[in-house]
Request: fold
Amino acid sequence: MPQISCAPDAALWLINTPNTSYAVRIDSSGAPCHVAWGGRLTLDEAAEVAARAHPADREISSFEGRPPVGEELPVDGGARYGVPSLQVRFADGTRAVEWEPVGHHIRETPDGATELDLDFRDRHYPLGIGLHYRVYDDSDVVERWTTLRNTGTDTDIVVLRADSAAWTLPPRADYRLGHVTGQWAAETQLRRETLPFGETVLTSRRGISSHHLNPWVMLDDGTASEDHGQVWSAALAWSGSWRITAQRTSDGRAGFTGGAGHDSTTLRLGPGRTHTTPRFAGLYTEGGFGAASRAWHTYIRAHVLPHPDEIRPVLYNSWEATGFDIDENRQLTLAARAAELGAELYVMDDGWFGARRSDRAGLGDWTPSPDRFPKGLAPLADEVHRLGMLFGLWVEPEMVNADSDLYRAHPDWILHFPHRTRTELRNQLVLNFARDDVADWAYGWLTALVADNGIDFLKWDMNRSFSEVGPGDGPDGDDRLWSAYVHNLYRVVDRLRADHPRLRIEACSGGGGRVDLGILSRTDQAWPSDNTDAADRIGIQHGYSQLYPASTMAAWVTDVPNELTARTVPLAFRFHVATAGILAVGGDLTHWSDEELAEAAGFVGAYKQVRHLVQHGVQHRLRAPVDDGPTVVQYTSPDRAETLVLAWQRAPRRGRPELPVRLAALDPAAVYRDVATGVSHHATVLTEHGLPLELPAGDWASTAIHLRRVSP
Reply:
């Protein structure tokens, strides 16, 4: 059970998770300071650590000031010269904050969590500050967030920066920063590099979490591996612009602070108003990057996803088959083929509405095109259901084309600067979801569309970043739009799901432009990239898996040559790569041969036999993507009764023998049988001496090996 205990005389609080401890204290100035984040401690042990001379309690050097890291929420004020997590400006122009402790509360929540609230106020100005901590009895994740309250009656407080939390690491000789980077069609490329001295800023100024970075970090001392070593990590539950600043100091310390917003954005906190930051969840492990990923996967399934226990269906999507050239007859033909293939969910993509004949028109006019669907969508939906599949639809509620009835009626609804050129990306503009009338309009047509057409699934897309976030978009000229937009987006999705409890939603933003803990708490899966090239997807999926579980990752098998890369790889390789997530097919089935359709149906059937392992099992990355060897991933059932090994290799290892791969997380006393061949293996042999992959000869070789425990 998680425990939160307090030593009042020492102004010390200890948060214990099943395997770790987090401790915080209040120093002599009244500021909340970090004590420890790592292995389990007792309260007495934490008190011993806290009793050591803390840098903040020593005489402040004329040249150094307070240490740049070590506070739970560094503020702007006093002799602080590091990155502030909290910056405000009071009505008289004062920017410094001085802490005064008010009290604390420890409580159990209805969902079984334990929370700690530390309450403070400024010593003079009407600002209340709450630091919040939340833990669960089945997770080592510590959720943190901050609340700000204007306790005055007549003046505003301008909030210049309000991070959710700051995290401090213990002193180490070296530090390494791990994160993912990329761009459209090349998301989640894993990077691990020495953390430089000074400040390193990871951010998105795009209004979305972005293709280019993802709002999480992992730090280690430079020696951690997939299987060993201390790793400190944190992830932000926010789907808009964000910023994480990591620091390394000359005295051997490191830390990072993060939250919503980016440089130069502000919000105005009126009298009596409260601002709550998104949650910034942190996790420590001694088991290396693999253990960190598995702990995140468990936490996300248990405490983030709305329906974690469901098995996600095999999906077919019409985009590559039709593009914008959509009509009812072609969709009916594709649906019949998809059902024969074994698909369980049929999704009609872009092009079904308004004057949508290309990406230049129609966005915003969300009614079926009468010339393409003369009786609406109901006949198609009914036939898809008759074929035994769920029916899904692509939508992009946050966007509008200038060539649309909606824009002609409401040109004021878009993000824009007056007297400046209107920026169009992908020939579209961003609707101002921060406006309640825009959000209510979107909710209205969405809930009617779902209800009137028996829609089971929405692919919710968002194909461009913000621009021209101008004056008048927020109250009193502040930048509240950046946060209000996201909160209204969440509100629309929440209302829609409350109306339609059976509705499932995929988060998409031109691929992986909006994947984060915030959007995943309201959706069921995510589209990691528009790049469906199986060779490229291996690296994309490797980076995605560092934080997010396979049960959230849509993975498509599409036609070759691939439309983005022009690469051709075998159908088996494409299916084996897509088996590592939520399997989907996106090719033009009307052009597949009978042999290809039969082969594909076999792979779909095989996936259905192992998807419980992929979607609900424990993942081990046995071999990372390399140029001259196989990438190998293993998924094992929680009871260790079954395991699946997937391997992909671009080319044979020239002049080097193929090595067996050592498996993980098996029952050491058991014997496992290969479901396909009937060959049995002792678990100890598999873990100590390895499993021969026996990959097919030639380039683009792949395999899927399903093992079941047969004894004891």
Summary: The first strand starts at residue 3 and ends at 7.
